[in-house]
């Protein structure tokens, strides 16, 4: 048995539903070699708890009340590169899956996953392995095989309009008012734009848009 196998894997559970967190905690606390470092129910709490506890693995819901789990994943991986992130969601959303991988997630599982498979996934992520739910693996590889052309071509109509407003210097609140959507939806758009353009900041995305308009 290796040292890593002998050591306890610490896990941070992130989900906005308390009953889901309780269920996951119940599973993990009764699993040998795994301990629950903490819980969080939002992007802000997830980042804060991750920095406070520095867990080996974060089990992270894709949809959170103050933004996207993809945003939380990107931020956690940026601050704690040694922490693995396992995305857990109720939906087989190809776009969310792809954005999660770009954000640095090590795995992506559906909540319908059996408890033993979830535990196995956590152990794999803690060991530095990459894994995907078999039902969504094909979607990722199909997406990766597509020709890489114009990065702006990957944006949806709403994301292109959001990027245009970002380039105009609008805040998220102003963008939400303009598009008649919620702040949470705008945050989701912004996260998707940054991932698709492979940039870390709004200003970089705005610069890409500006260069395209001048050509």
Explain this structure:
This protein is an alpha/beta fold and 215 residues long. Helices cover 55% and strands 16% of the residues. The protein contains 11 helices and 8 strands. The chain has a 6-stranded parallel β-sheet, with helices on both faces. Helix 2 links the parallel strand 1 and strand 2. Helix 3 (43-53) packs parallel to helix 4. The longest helix is centred in the last third of the chain and has 15 residues, at 183-197.
Strand order across the biggest sheet? 2-1-3-6-7-8
State the oligomer.
Answer: single chain
Specify the number of helices.
11
* Secondary-structure element string: HEHEHEEEHEHEHEHHHHH
Quickly give the structural class.
Answer: alpha/beta
Radius of gyration: 18 Å
Shape: elongated
Mean pLDDT: 85
Percent of residues in helices? 40-55%
Count of individual beta strands: 8
What gap, in angstroms, lies between the N and C termini? 60 Å
Main sheet summary: 6 strands, parallel
Q: Beta-strand percentage?
A: 15-25%
pLDDT < 50 stretches: 1-6
Features:
disordered N terminus; 11 helices; 55% helix; single chain; 8 strands; two-stranded antiparallel ribbon; 215 residues
């Amino acid at each position: 048995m290796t040292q890593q196998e002998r050591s306890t894997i610490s896990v941070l559970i992130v989900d906005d539903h308390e009953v889901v967190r309780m269920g996951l905690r119940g599973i993990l606390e009764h699993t040998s070699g795994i301990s629950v470092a903490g819980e969080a129910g939002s992007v802000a709490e997830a980042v804060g708890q991750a920095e406070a506890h520095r867990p080996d693995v974060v089990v992270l819901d894709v949809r959170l009340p103050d933004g996207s789990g993809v945003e939380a994943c990107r931020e956690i991986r940026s601050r704690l590169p040694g922490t693995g992130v396992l995305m857990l969601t109720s939906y087989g959303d190809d776009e969310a899956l792809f954005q999660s991988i770009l954000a640095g997630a090590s795995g992506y599982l559906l909540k319908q996953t059996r408890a033993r498979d979830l535990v196995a996934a956590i152990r794999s992520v803690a060991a530095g392995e990459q894994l995907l739910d078999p039902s969504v693996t094909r979607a990722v590889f199909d997406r990766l095989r597509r020709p890489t052309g114009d990065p702006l071509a990957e944006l949806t109509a709403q994301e292109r309009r959001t990027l245009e407003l970002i380039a105009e210097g609008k805040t998220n609140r102003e963008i939400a008012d303009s598009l008649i959507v919620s702040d949470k939806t705008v945050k989701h758009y912004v996260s998707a734009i940054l991932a698709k353009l492979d940039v870390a900041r709004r200003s970089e995305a705005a610069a890409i848009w500006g260069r395209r308009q001048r050509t």
